[in-house]
Design brief:
By secondary structure, this protein is of the alpha+beta class. The protein has two domains: 4-54, no CATH class; 59-142, Thrombin, subunit H, CATH 2.40.10. Helices cover 33% and strands 32% of the residues. It has two helices and six strands. A six-stranded antiparallel β-barrel has the order 1-2-5-4-3-6. The longest helix is centred in the first third of the chain and has 29 residues, at 29-57. It is rod-shaped and about 115 Å long.
């Protein structure tokens, strides 16, 4: 340290260290491979969860009770991917009967929307603001 060679060595090491502090080193190949493997494992799981939620919401339900003019109970709930505030389309069911009185054709006529207020696993309470009188058996579908 006291010799000229020692002082020159310390000065050279200090310069090298200063240069290295400003240098960014990319992640190692092993770390990059591990990170990529984790990302590919997470993507199918989230895609599957999204597909399951979409499939559950594509199920149509029925009006199971009409306790008041603007209150409707439907057969869809959180198990189908719905939550409070979601909107559903409301369809009137129109049956066409044959000569013997049996239903030969059923149509669904869009009559409005309902908004889910309270959601349970398999049922939901909703609000209807339209002019028609909703009847049990009408169909509801996700928007």
């Amino acid at each position: 340290m006291r010799s000229a060679l020692g002082k020159a060595t310390v000065k050279a090491i200090a310069l090298v260290m200063a240069d290295l502090r400003n240098t960014s080193v990319p992640a190692s190949g092993r770390r990059q491979a591990r990170q990529k493997a984790q990302e590919t494992q997470q993507q199918p799981a989230s895609a599957a969860a999204s597909a399951t939620a979409t499939a559950a919401r594509s199920v149509s339900g029925k009006v199971v009770a009409v306790p008041g003019k603007s209150v409707v109970i439907v057969s869809l709930g959180s198990r189908n991917g719905y939550k409070a505030g979601d909107k559903l389309k409301l369809y009137e069911t129109i049956d066409t009967k044959g000569d013997k009185g049996e239903v030969v054709f059923t149509e669904e006529k869009l009559v409005g929307e309902i908004t889910l207020d309270a959601v349970q696993d398999e049922r939901s309470k909703a609000t209807y603001t339209g002019d028609l009188t909703v009847k049990t058996g009408w169909t509801v579908k996700g928007i």
